[in-house]
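Input sequence (137 aa), recorded before submission:
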Amino acid sequence: MPLMPKRVKYRKSHRGSRSGNAGRGTKVSYGEFGLQSLGRGWITNRQIEACRVAINRYLKRKGKVWIRIFPHKPITKRPPETRMGKGKGAVEAWVAVVRPGTMLFEVSGVTESQAKEAMRLAANKLPVKCRFVTRQG
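Predicted structure, token format:
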């Protein structure tokens, strides 16, 4: 079951601005270690799921994982080889808007080396540059 809102007020939205840094959600809140974005962009529900699977496979049911982002934004796409006009396309994917500083994933209950490797595997699946952070700093 892909990550997406249960219901939304409007089915299709504008693309919006990607500028600026993350105002909140920048600290390690739940776990001991985290994966923080250094770049900006959209992360799709499929990419979030791929990261979750990569982390869980590496940790083999040890520790706890928190997903700190949620894909609220619908992205539409027109069918291929379609002329301009005739309305906005159908919703193709749901994305989370990520700005520099956003905490993406958190882990606890594992060693630092295990957490670092799990986060490295997850970061390879993402379209933004990321860094490994700990609760201390």
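Checked by second reader. The mean pLDDT is 91.
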